[in-house]
Design goal:
By secondary structure, the chain is α/β, with parallel strands linked by helices. The chain has a seven-stranded parallel β-sheet with strand order 3-4-2-5-6-1-7, with helices on both faces. The chain has a six-stranded parallel β-sheet with strand order 8-13-12-9-11-10, with helices on both faces. It starts with a helix and ends with a helix.
Length: about 850
């Protein structure tokens, strides 16, 4: 008895003398010459108290350690009495880490593994993404690791395996990285649905999100943690104002008549000087096509950089992207020309300069990209801005003002997309099945489906059970069965096809590009490649390639010399100006109109501003400018709402319809982020149209639909919805072409319109076209603002600096790029000589 008391005393003494988890972590920080930030400590304590929440901090300020060490410290506290953490088997699944891009998974895994290895913890850390090997996935189906790094799609796939539900039910926490990138997208809603299922499996589940550069934080929290959730939650703010330095590269021979769409490659010498001044840099362009052109032009200018400069975008082969990322980490590459493929989370501490080609079109995007340099909490992020035309300097000045006001973009939320819900219903039916009322209750805990009605839910169930009203006669669409009131899937073919089709990323079908001699370069959209003839040359992966043949959905190419006949264009490449940046830009123009040229960028624009005011005027915040110009017998009407390209595309068509109702007239149209142009052979009755309510927000949707081909726009939008909902299958790799998928979706669209006009997927297609493709909410806000503005109509003698980019956009559709460049140069010379 005395011996037992003595042994217990020594055990208690040993326990009391053991360092606490906090002391262990503090010591680990000290060994790495780091010091924890207050927001990191706050996050660790909140996690150990069992709370959920979100960490919002600038890029490169230590968010990963803030959210990752909480679960580690909690486990250490629970196992303090263990003298050495070396059990025979690693602990079961405790943490699920969701990343928006599988390309980030490797870097995130390295950051997560460092404390595990250096603290000697027995956790097993693995990832499961589309790039993971089949053998690893098979192993994980038997036993999941202690911490699993995955994507939204892979989480949905896990939920289709009923035998994993018990392990997922023992999950302690889920961490969603880069939540601002998922929010407001169908992938974000897919994540919301997955989180709701995990909360159902474990009501005590802790959920933490990591975010930066986000405006609507309350919405973000509700989407992440669920609505009506009484679980303790906390928003932790870190470093929102990381030190950043912005500089502009001002052209030495600034064009007073800037050509919008000209990618600014005449700035190559200045860009190369910037690259030379830095140890390592990233050059961001807004589209993959631009990266291809800039990479080639830089290499032509600096041939000695061969092997030190690389290209990175989402269509390149994985092996190419990984080689580039490793080269940046190891300091082998001097610069990388890239798109948003390197926007997120990848930690390249060696990068000390970011170069932005052209306007990023959003305040948050500018901050995100700037944060790729100086990717450490106490380092300075440095961004150099290279305008592709003069007016973009005003956009940078406006963005810097918005940053000072902390006016970041909010991510608009999607409302009840039924295609995603139908896919999720089949997922849960495969993964053990569900009852109608119980799953509906679960769905209503998400922000996306909190207002889902019984009728809408029953409609989705009819769709997945027997194809809805119009497809009931076709067994292929009877995916889910009802057995004793339980919705489930038993057919192996349906299970297999569904697992291959899980996800909401829908782009034009891509065709793999391979050398004839072997080796893959990546993928290019099928619509581009099928227009090329054998022997034609195009730029891709930084190489000039000649198309040899297309066979079995593969384009075989060889290296060649000369000049390209084409550069691939990827769908959705152009970014629209955000509402926040539009608002800030209007404020900058107001300052300039009042003679206040604040900042280096605005002072550089003085020659352009002087000409604009001499010939017309510079619109103030409370004004809408309309310019009427006649060129070679054509009447041009320039209108400048400064509301972004997407909103202008709908507005210009609607305005044309409203004017034509007053007087028969035919227009050709063009628009950019700043304004729109209506061209006709006769003068438009502008004043009469204004009096008749040209800019009234009343009947906006009706007039938009009168002005556009609503059916064709809905048809295109429906293709994506049909694929997400599972009506058409992508099939096995290489099995179906884009034309086949398009024909299938068109057939469904036509059948539904004729025989099932109340089909809710058709209504969703219409809503998505209006809200997302045309931005009708933004158009309504713009017209409401214009109603309270002074409309200024001028008749300048020539096309003004504001109008010149619009006029070039109108010409673009009528001539080749080479002819266009010659025409633009002549126009610039003529206008310059008129000053």
């Amino acid at each position: 008895m005395r011996r037992g008391i003595r042994a217990s005393f020594f055990q208690f003494h040993s326990f009391c003398c053991m360092p606490t988890p906090n002391q262990i972590v503090q010591s680990w920080f000290a060994r790495n010459h780091w010091k924890p930030f207050p927001f990191q400590k706050k996050a660790w304590l909140a996690y150990q108290r069992g709370e959920s929440g979100m960490i919002h901090s600038a890029t490169g300020t230590g968010k990963t350690l803030a959210v990752w060490l909480g679960p580690i410290m909690k486990w250490m506290k629970e196992n303090r009495t263990t003298q050495q953490w070396t059990p025979k088997q690693p602990p079961p699944l405790r943490v699920l880490w969701i990343t928006p891009l599988r390309a980030l998974a490797g870097d995130t895994e390295n950051a997560m593994r460092k404390p595990l290895d250096e603290l000697g913890l027995p956790w097993r850390l693995e990832r499961r993404t589309g790039d993971s090997s089949a053998s690893l996935k098979a192993k994980q189906l038997k036993r999941l690791p202690t911490a699993l790094l995955t994507t939204p799609e892979s989480l949905s796939l896990l939920l289709t395996h009923e035998k994993l539900l018990e392990q997922l039910g023992g999950l302690e926490s889920v961490i969603v990285d880069e939540w601002h990138e998922l929010l407001g997208t169908k992938r974000g809603i897919q994540t919301e649905l997955g989180l709701a299922r995990l909360r159902r499996l474990n009501p005590a589940l802790q959920i933490w999100g990591v975010s930066a550069t986000l405006g609507n934080l309350d919405d973000a929290m509700d989407c992440l943690l669920g609505v009506n959730n009484t679980h303790p939650r906390q928003l932790i703010r870190g470093y929102a104002k990381k030190k950043m330095v912005f500089e502009s590269v001002i052209p030495t021979d600034m064009d007073r008549f800037p050509w919008a769409g000209h990618i600014g490659t005449k700035m190559i010498p200045q860009v190369c000087e910037l690259v030379d001044s830095a140890g390592s840099s990233l050059i961001f362009a807004n589209t993959r096509s631009q990266t291809e052109i800039w990479y080639r032009k830089i290499l032509e200018h600096r041939k000695d950089w061969a092997g030190k400069i690389a290209l990175h975008h989402g269509s390149l082969d994985n092996s190419v992207r990984h080689w580039v990322e490793d080269g940046l980490r190891e300091g082998r590459l001097k610069t990388v020309v890239c798109t948003s493929s390197l926007d997120l989370g990848v930690d390249f501490t060696a990068v000390d300069l970011v170069i932005q080609i052209g306007s990023p079109k959003g305040v948050a995007r500018l901050l995100q990209r700037a944060g790729r340099s100086g990717h450490q909490p106490d380092a300075v992020s440095r961004l150099a801005f290279v305008p592709t035309h003069a007016i973009e300097l005003a956009e940078l000045a406006a963005a810097q003002d918005a940053i000072k006001r902390e006016q970041l973009e909010a991510r608009p939320l999607l409302k009840k997309p039924l295609d995603v819900l139908a896919q999720h219903a089949v997922t849960i039916a495969i993964g053990g099945g569900f009852g109608r009322d119980r799953l509906l209750e679960e769905l209503r805990t998400t922000r996306a489906y909190e207002s889902l009605t019984d009728a809408e839910w029953d409609w989705v169930l009819r769709l997945v059970v027997h194809g809805g009203e119009s497809l009931e006669a076709y067994p292929d669409f009877h995916r889910v069965e009802i057995v004793d009131g339980k919705y489930q899937v038993s057919q192996r073919r349906i299970i297999s096809m569904h697992r291959m089709s899980i996800g909401t990323i829908v782009a034009d079908a891509a065709m793999r590009v391979k050398y004839v001699s072997g080796g893959s370069l990546g993928t290019v959209e099928e619509t581009f490649l099928t227009k090329l003839r054998p022997g034609e040359k195009f730029l891709f992966a930084g190489r000039l390639l000649e198309l040899v043949r297309i066979r079995d959905n593969v384009a075989y190419v060889r290296r060649t010399k000369g000049s390209p006949d084409a550069v691939p264009r990827w769908y959705g490449g152009r970014l629209p100006l955000s509402s926040e940046l539009s608002d800030s830009l209007r404020k900058k123009l107001t300052e300039a109109a009042e003679g206040k040229l604040i900042g280096r960028e605005m002072r550089a624009l003085k020659p352009l501003i002087d000409v604009q005011q001499q010939w017309s005027t510079l619109p103030r915040e409370d004004e809408l400018l309309i310019e009427r110009v006649k060129t070679k017998g054509v009447h041009q009407l320039f209108i400048y709402p400064f509301e972004g390209r997407l909103a202008h595309e709908g507005l210009v068509a609607m305005l044309a319809v409203r004017i034509s109702r007053l007087s028969p007239i035919t227009f050709s149209m063009a628009c950019n982020d700043y304004g729109m142009i209506l061209s006709s052979s006769q003068s438009a009755p502008v004043e009469r149209a204004i009096e008749a309510g040209l800019f009234s927000p009343d009947n906006l949707v009706r007039d938009i639909l009168d002005s556009l081909n609503e059916t064709e726009m809905m048809r295109r939008g429906f293709r994506e919805i049909a694929r997400v909902a599972g009506l058409i299958q992508q099939g096995y790799p290489g099995q179906k072409s884009a034309k086949h998928l398009q024909a299938s979706s068109n057939l469904f669209f036509d059948v539904f319109r004729e025989y099932d006009p109340d089909n809710l997927l058709l209504e969703q297609a219409r809503r998505e076209v209006l809200e997302q493709k045309l931005e009708t909410d933004r158009m309504y806000a713009a017209l409401s603002r214009i109603e309270n503005q002074t409309i200024v109509v001028t008749e300048p003698p020539k096309i003004t600096p504001l109008g010149f980019p619009l006029f070039v956009d109108r010409l673009r559709d009528r001539m080749s790029s080479e002819t266009l460049a010659d025409r633009v140069r002549k126009m610039q010379q003529q206008l310059e000589s008129s000053i």
